[in-house]
């Protein structure tokens, strides 16, 4: 590995350095304030590193692929981690005891996500995914009291571990068929191996798809999602919904493009079924929810269904890669905005995330109520928000590839979605008896910044589209 | 030296059997410790398939992935067992069915 390859790895190096410094700092003197500052500085340095590495885009050994597309998502993941760090600052501090280790776990999990985003080989995919996952189990179970976080952590550990095992077995079968572990190598040899040994390739591909669908919580692999979303501390839920799912989707897109999987009709059919079920069932089950975190869990299932359409239509359209970039960016910003407000409103008691808790929020804190409203409108895909432009891209791509069946599922799903997103907004505008205003500087500023970003992406998207096209 | 020559398909069959046993255990068992053990069986069956495939292609890659899986499984179980301790302390039970406070 030469110097310029090391420079290409700058974001990974910066995060690793932060993790080491945090460990040393915690062993010398436990001080939550200092830990928090080191974490923020470390993530900012990694963000700088992501910009710096743009001049050194190249494959780094066979394991990692540093390119502008991956670096953009690296920056997005780091931004989401930064928001999570800010939100975590005084969440679940009432539980007693300090939480230096929590920030260390968060940095490690972000490091895993960055590796996952840049991976181009099965081994780095495995390491990144598990580094991200194992740190997340501990983050979910971190609050010292309460039964729900523990229950969520155990469920997530068992089901995520099961998904990893399925994914690994699938890759083992593909390795047995092709003798390759890098995505490109598998893609080159798979077509030939398919002729001599169709069963092995089919079973391997199916298991890899199932494993990734588990992690993205696509229907019918979605059972863990609502429980984990509800049970985890709210900042961690936001982290899981943005960093973890986003990174896995980028990895899926990379496998899909590098291994040229779009030439296998049966795989496209399987992905179409997963996408249609996720859009319809995700939106339908969201209607029944009384807990806002569970509701967003089902909504995220539906959103990854929408995103899959882009992947399915990848070859039929020149806009597809821009559509993935735009949709994922819009989804991550909107989800962060929503969870910022939820974390602030239900902060005294982590379990208080019923929709009724949000009644009268417009009278209690105007900024956060507005931010949640914009986030919900963006989820629903109302014009002038990022979600509208994102959905516009998806529909455009689907029409170009003439995927009418998926398009109808998308339209029905979105129509159902509007009902439950608006329900939250109506609930906020109701007056309840005790509307005591609250002020909260860091929460207000974070929510405001994210709202501005969502509106900018939606009402003035040209610079970003040009930027995404150049990636 | 000529090693014992076992066809690749036989080992893959054994690995698939192990995988199915692990998966059934995961779904049927209710005790968290047994569920973690089943998880371990599933991960190790994948590792076995990797070693067999590596030997078939005459590459060291399979064994390297085996070692990665070994360390990852260890990390996963370390976190899993610490969660088991907490579950026993807070729920007074190791039954997975007692963990059903969330519904919907």
Descriptive overview:
- Chain A is mainly alpha-helical.
- Chain A has a domain of 208 residues.
- Helices cover 76% and strands 1% of the residues of chain A.
- The model of chain A has no long low-confidence stretch (mean pLDDT 88).
- Chain B has 104 residues and is mostly helical.
- Chain B has a domain of 65 residues: Helix Hairpins.
- The termini of chain B are far apart.
- The interface between A and B is large, with 43 and 46 residues.
Shape of chain B: elongated
Report the count of strand segments of chain B: 0
Mean pLDDT of chain B: 88
Distance between the termini of chain B: 61 Å
Helix percentage range of chain A: over 70%
Q: Given the helix and strand composition of chain A, which structural class is it?
A: mainly alpha
Largest sheet of chain B: none
How far apart the termini of chain A lie comes to 25 Å
Q: Percent of residues of chain B in helical segments?
A: over 70%
The proportion of strand residues of chain A reads under 5%
What Rg of chain A, in angstroms, do the CA atoms define? 21 Å
Annotation keywords:
heterodimer, A: 471 residues, mainly alpha, two-stranded antiparallel sheet, B: 104 residues, Helix Hairpins
Quick take:
By secondary structure, chain A is an all-alpha fold.
Give the SSE map.
The complex is a heterodimer of chains A (471) and B (104).
Chain A: H1 3-8, H2 10-28, H3 32-52, E1 58-60, E2 64-66, H4 68-88, H5 100-118, H6 122-140, H7 148-178, H8 183-196, H9 198-215, H10 224-231, H11 234-258, H12 265-286, H13 292-312, H14 320-345, H15 361-364, H16 366-380, H17 386-400, H18 404-429, H19 441-459, H20 462-469
Antiparallel strand pairs in A: 1-2
Helix pairs in contact in A: 2-3, 2-5, 3-4, 3-5, 4-5, 4-11, 4-14, 5-6, 5-11, 6-7, 6-11, 7-8, 7-9, 7-10, 8-9, 10-11, 10-13, 11-13, 11-14, 12-13, 12-18, 13-14, 13-17, 13-18, 14-16, 14-17, 14-19, 14-20, 16-18, 16-19, 17-19
Chain B: H1 8-28, H2 32-57, H3 61-91
Helix pairs in contact in B: 1-2, 2-3
């Amino acid at each position: 590995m030469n110097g310029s390859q090391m420079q290409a790895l700058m974001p990974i190096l910066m995060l690793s350095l932060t993790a080491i410094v945090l460990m040393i700092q915690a062993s010398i003197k436990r001080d939550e304030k200092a830990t928090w500052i080191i974490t923020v500085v470390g993530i900012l340095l990694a963000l700088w590193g992501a910009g710096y590495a743009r001049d050194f885009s190249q494959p780094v050994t066979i394991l990692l692929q540093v390119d502008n597309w991956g670096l953009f998502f690296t920056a997005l993941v780091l931004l989401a981690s930064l928001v999570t760090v800010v939100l975590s600052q005084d969440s679940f501090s009432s539980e007693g005891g300090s939480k230096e280790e929590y920030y260390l776990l968060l940095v490690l999990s972000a490091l895993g996500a960055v590796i996952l985003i840049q991976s181009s080989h099965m081994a780095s995919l495995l390491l990144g995914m598990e580094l991200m996952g194992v740190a997340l189990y501990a983050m979910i179970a971190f609050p010292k009291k309460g039964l729900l976080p523990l229950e969520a952590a155990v469920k997530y550990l068992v089901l995520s571990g099961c998904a990893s095992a399925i994914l690994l077995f699938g890759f083992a079968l593909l390795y047995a068929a092709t003798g390759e572990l890098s995505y490109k190598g598998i893609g080159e040899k798979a077509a030939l191996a398919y002729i001599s040994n169709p069963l092995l390739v089919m079973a391997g591909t199916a298991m890899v798809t199932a494993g990734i669908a588990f992690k993205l919580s696509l229907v019918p692999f979605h059972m863990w999602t609502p429980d984990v979303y509800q049970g985890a501390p709210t900042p961690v839920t936001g982290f899981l919904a943005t960093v973890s799912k986003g990174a896995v989707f980028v990895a899926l897109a990379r496998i899909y493009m590098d291994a040229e999987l779009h030439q296998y009709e049966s795989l496209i059919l399987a992905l179409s079924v997963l996408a249609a079920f996720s859009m319809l069932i995700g939106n339908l089950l969201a209607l029944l929810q009384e807990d806002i975190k569970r509701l967003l869990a089902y909504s995220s299932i539906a959103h990854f269904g929408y995103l899959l359409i882009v992947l399915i239509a990848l070859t039929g359209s020149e806009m597809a890669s821009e559509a993935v970039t735009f949709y994922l960016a819009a989804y991550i910003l909107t989800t962060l905005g929503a969870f910022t407000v939820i974390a602030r409103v239900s902060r005294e008691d982590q379990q208080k995330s019923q929709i009724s808790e949000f009644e009268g929020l417009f009278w209690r804190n105007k900024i956060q109520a507005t931010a949640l409203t914009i986030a919900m409108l963006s989820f629903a895909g109302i014009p002038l928000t990022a979600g509208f432009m994102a959905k516009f891209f998806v529909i455009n791509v689907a029409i170009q590839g003439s995927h009418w069946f998926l398009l109808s599922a998308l339209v029905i799903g979105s129509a159902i979605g509007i009902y439950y997103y608006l329900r939250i907004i109506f609930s906020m505008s109701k007056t309840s008896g005790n509307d005591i205003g609250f002020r909260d500087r860091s929460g207000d500023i974070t929510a405001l910044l994210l709202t501005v970003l969502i509106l900018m992406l939606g009402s003035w998207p040209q610079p970003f589209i040009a930027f995404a096209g150049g990636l | 030296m000529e090693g014992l020559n076992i066809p690749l398909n036989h080992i893959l069959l054994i690995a698939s059997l192990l995988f199915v046993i692990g998966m059934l255990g995961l779904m049927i068992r209710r005790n968290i410790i047994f569920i973690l053990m089943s998880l371990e069986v599933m991960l190790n069956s994948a590792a076995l398939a990797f070693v067999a495939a590596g030997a078939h292609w005459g590459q060291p890659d399979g064994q390297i992935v085996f070692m990665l899986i070994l360390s990852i499984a260890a990390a996963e179980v370390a976190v899993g067992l610490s969660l088991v301790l907490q579950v026993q302390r807070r729920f007074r039970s190791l039954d997975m069915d007692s963990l059903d406070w969330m519904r919907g």
